[in-house]
Every structure is written in structure tokens, then in C-alpha cells.
Design brief:
By secondary structure, the chain is mainly β. The protein is 10% helix and 43% strand. The protein has helices spanning 2-19, 37-46, 134-139, 301-304, 350-355, and strands at residues 59-63, 65-72, 77-82, 91-99, 104-115, 148-160, 164-171, 204-205, 208-209, 242-248, 255-262, 266-277, 280-291, 311-313, 316-327, 332-343, 346-347, 360-373, 376-388, 402-416, 421-435, 449-457. Helix 1 (2-19) packs parallel to helix 2. It is globular.
């Protein structure tokens, strides 16, 4: 009976390995079927998906992050259960590498996101509580799908210890999240430069929600607009991965350089630094990107409900810089980011071209990171930021020639080291305003937007 059980287990393992595409020795159905069971089981275990094959490793990583989000836009309030936003959502990542020589290695990354409900799109009058994947809207030029499973990254790389790394495929370009990822406070996902929570909530005026001519609620994201990428993410305008070739240099004295090129045409370059001096951790990054691809990132007009004024000639550059400093002994930290866009794009409507904004945005976050309990670090923070003239080009038709969106917030994060988990509670307030010769009566006296989120990431 014991031998029969081992044979059954081995046969099941062989079938599993075959389905997974891993090599397996064919079962010997003769009289010696169990003679080499131990050897065969050992071989099967060495080639299962949890380890990779004999030459290329395989690691599986990721997280699940969900939150409860309450909002009040002055006209209505509601509570939704959402994820934490495209490119930061719940995901799993398959990665691996193989040593070619002591100097050279090669590897791969495949990362898949699972969006239950995207806070970037949830809450608009068109979508209600089930926000479709922002990543899918962008990549599919406006089609809506929620919940969604989306491919975020898929690329291979070659790496030299002396020369650096080249990656090819669907990559995070050099400028993606450049100014955001330097934040080492432990509160990056919960509160960062990108207004992930509430982008699609309707603007309201004196207690009445505003709507576009097609009946879609006019979202606050229309005042966070990146002209070069048509994304309501100002300031992290280059947040969406693209098919490209990327180069990363080795690190010299804490400094590294990255550059990427893709599509038709996009290019960027970034410089990063990380180090520690006299008990102070420092991290900084600066990046410049340029877009001239008329077919890139046009889907988010679906969310705004505004007429899709796609450029006839896209010519937009974006510069961003971010820095983080933390006093290790006390846990005091400060983070800041700044971005500015130079939008020289041309549109079919000359008035839109003349009124297309070139705005800027800045953001500050400061707080305390201390380990007061055995559970893990506690992070307390306050945030403040402003976006100037980052409005959707279509608002020119409504007489808008200027805009300002001020945000501030408070929050707390509790890390639970034993579970590799973080729990958080935060509050954010957005104060929108627009200006122009003909906006009075249309957009004056806009109501503030208030958002509270409570969630967890593991």
C-alpha cells in the first residue's frame, strides 16, 4: 500500500509538471515502476514552479491591498470598497534570473494586477461604486472593464555588473514614479504625490454636482490633467508603463542613471541618488520625459466625460524632481516633489491649441516614523500640495484659462512586521478653483471634496 501511494503521488506530480511545461521523465509502467521513485520525486520537486528550473530561478511576490473609502463632494456623500489605484493595486509578480558568467546574468519579470474597484475611477456618476481599471482604460483607448486583470509589466533583461542593465518589453520607463518612489516613510501607498483616491468624484458648485454635455459628472480629475499623457495624475504624469527599451547604469557613489525609449515616440532620462550621512537617510530623483506619439494614452477622456480633443501633433515635455530625508534616530522625515509640464501640442481646434495649459504642481509630506510597539513602526504624517493650471484642454471651451487645486491631509499607518502588513487611516481635502473671462456662473464657488480611507496591505 505504501508503494502504491508513492506511485500515485509520483504520477500526479509528473502530470502536474507536464501541464506546467516542466520536463519530466515518462512513467515506467513496467514491473519496476517504483524502483526509482525517490529519484523521480526529487527531480519533479526541483523543477516545480515554486523554484524554477535548473538554470533559471523563479520567485513569486506581490501584495493584496483594499480599503474602505468615504467621500463628500458638497452635494452628496457615499462609501465604497476599492483597491489602492492602478500601478499600485493588488498584484502578483513572477521574476527570475540566471547566471551566464560571473560578469553577466539574464532574467525576466511578469507582473499582473488585479483591480477589484479602482479609486481612480470609482464614484463618478457614470461608474458608481464599481470603478473600472484605469490601466485598461488607458491601454484600450476608453473601453471599460471592472473588475479587471491587467498585465502591468512583461520584459526580459541582460545585466552586467560593470556596464549596467538593458530591459526590453512592457517596462516601467525611467521616469515612471521617479519623484514618488524616493518616499521611504512607509506611507507611500497611502499618501503620495498622485491623487489616487477620488480623481473621478464629481465637482460640485454650491451643493449641486456639475455635469458635462453628455451627462457624465465633471470629475475633479479634470483639474489634475497631464497634457502629454492625457492622464488625471498631475504630478506623476508618466505613471503608465510602455513598450520600450530601458537602460539602467550601475550605482556609483549612490548615483545611478536610467533612460528609455519606446513607441512612436517617447523618451526619457532619470538620475537617482540614495545614501546616508550623519544619521540622516537621503534619497532623491529627477527625470525628464518627452512625448510626441499622437496615439499614446488617449482613453481617459472616457472618465472625464469631456470631448476628446486629441492632439493632431503631440509635443509635450515633463520635468519632475523628488527628495526624501529621514533622521534615523528620531524617525522625523520630510518628503517633497515638484513637476512642470511644457505642452506645445497642436489640436484641430485653434482655440484649444491657444488655450492648452502648461502647468506645474508641488507636494510636501512630513511626519514621524517610530517603533512604539512590538508590532512594528507607526507612521504619522501630514501632507499639503497644489496644482496650478493643470486643467483639461477641453475646459477652454467653457472659458477656463487658469486653475488651482489645493490639497491637504492627515494620516496614520501601523506596520505589522510579523505579517508583512500595513494598516492605515487617513483624511484628504481638495479645494478646487478655476479662473477665466467667462467662467463666472459656470465654475465659481466650487465645493471642497473630502475623503477618508481606511485599509490594509499584506
Amino acid at each position: 500500500m505504501k508503494n502504491l501511494r508513492h506511485c500515485a503521488l509520483a504520477a500526479g506530480g509528473i502530470l502536474t509538471a507536464a501541464c506546467l511545461g516542466t520536463p519530466a521523465i515518462a512513467a515506467d509502467l513496467g514491473g519496476d515502476c517504483c524502483a526509482d521513485l525517490e529519484e523521480r520525486v526529487a527531480e519533479l520537486e526541483a523543477t516545480t514552479a515554486r523554484k524554477g528550473n535548473r538554470k533559471v530561478s523563479l520567485a513569486i511576490s506581490g501584495w493584496v491591498a483594499e480599503q474602505v473609502m468615504w467621500y463628500d463632494n458638497g452635494a452628496t456623500s457615499n462609501v465604497y470598497v476599492t483597491g489602492v489605484g492602478s500601478t499600485l493595486s493588488s498584484h502578483f509578480k513572477l521574476s527570475g534570473s540566471a547566471t551566464i558568467t560571473p560578469e553577466w546574468s539574464a532574467g525576466y519579470v511578469v507582473q499582473v494586477e488585479v483591480n477589484t474597484s479602482d479609486p481612480l475611477t470609482a464614484g463618478n456618476s457614470r461608474f458608481g461604486d464599481d470603478g473600472p481599471s484605469a490601466l485598461r482604460i488607458v491601454n484600450n483607448n476608453g473601453s471599460l472593464s471592472s473588475p479587471a486583470v491587467d498585465l502591468l509589466y512583461s520584459y526580459w533583461f541582460m545585466k552586467s555588473n560593470r556596464l549596467g542593465q538593458v530591459s526590453v518589453g512592457l517596462v516601467p520607463q525611467a521616469s515612471q514614479h521617479a519623484a514618488v518612489l524616493v518616499d521611504g516613510s512607509g506611507s507611500l501607498v497611502m499618501a503620495n504625490w498622485v491623487p489616487l483616491d477620488g480623481t473621478a468624484f464629481n465637482l460640485s458648485q454650491r451643493g449641486t454636482e456639475l455635469y458635462t454635455p453628455n451627462g457624465t459628472g465633471l470629475p475633479i480629475g479634470a483639474l489634475m490633467w497631464c497634457g502629454g499623457t492625457s492622464l488625471p495624475l498631475a504630478g506623476d504624469c508618466d505613471a503608465i508603463p510602455t513598450n520600450a527599451v530601458r537602460y539602467d547604469s550601475p550605482t556609483f557613489g549612490g548615483f545611478s542613471v536610467s533612460a528609455s525609449w519606446g513607441e512612436d515616440d517617447f523618451w526619457d532620462v532619470a538620475v537617482r541618488y540614495a545614501g546616508e550621512f550623519n544619521g540622516i537617510k537621503l534619497a532623491a530623483s529627477a527625470a525628464y520625459s518627452h512625448h510626441s506619439d499622437e496615439t499614446q494614452f488617449l482613453g481617459f477622456d472616457t472618465v472625464t466625460g469631456l470631448t476628446a480633443y486629441h492632439p493632431t501633433h503631440l509635443d509635450a515635455g515633463y520635468f519632475q524632481i523628488g527628495a526624501y530625508a529621514q533622521h534615523v534616530a528620531t524617525g522625523l522625515f520630510i518628503y517633497g516633489a515638484y513637476g512642470t509640464e511644457d505642452n506645445d501640442s497642436r489640436y484641430a481646434d485653434a482655440a484649444i491649441t491657444a488655450g492648452a495649459p502648461s502647468g506645474d504642481s508641488w507636494y510636501l509630506k512630513a511626519g514621524l516614523r517610530r517603533k512604539w510597539t512590538p508590532l512594528g513602526h507607526t507612521v504619522l504624517y501630514g501632507e499639503y500640495g497644489q496644482r496650478n493650471d493643470m486643467y483639461h484642454p477641453a475646459l477652454t471651451a467653457f472659458g477656463v484659462s487658469g486653475s488651482k487645486l489645493t490639497q491637504w491631509g492627515l494620516g496614520a499607518v501601523q506596520e505589522i512586521d510579523a505579517a508583512a502588513m500595513s494598516l492605515w487611516l487617513n483624511y484628504k481635502s481638495y479645494d478646487p478653483s478655476v479662473s477665466g473671462p467667462d467662467v463666472r456662473g459656470n465654475f465659481d464657488d466650487l465645493d471642497n471634496l473630502h475623503i477618508i480611507t481606511a485599509g490594509g496591505l499584506i
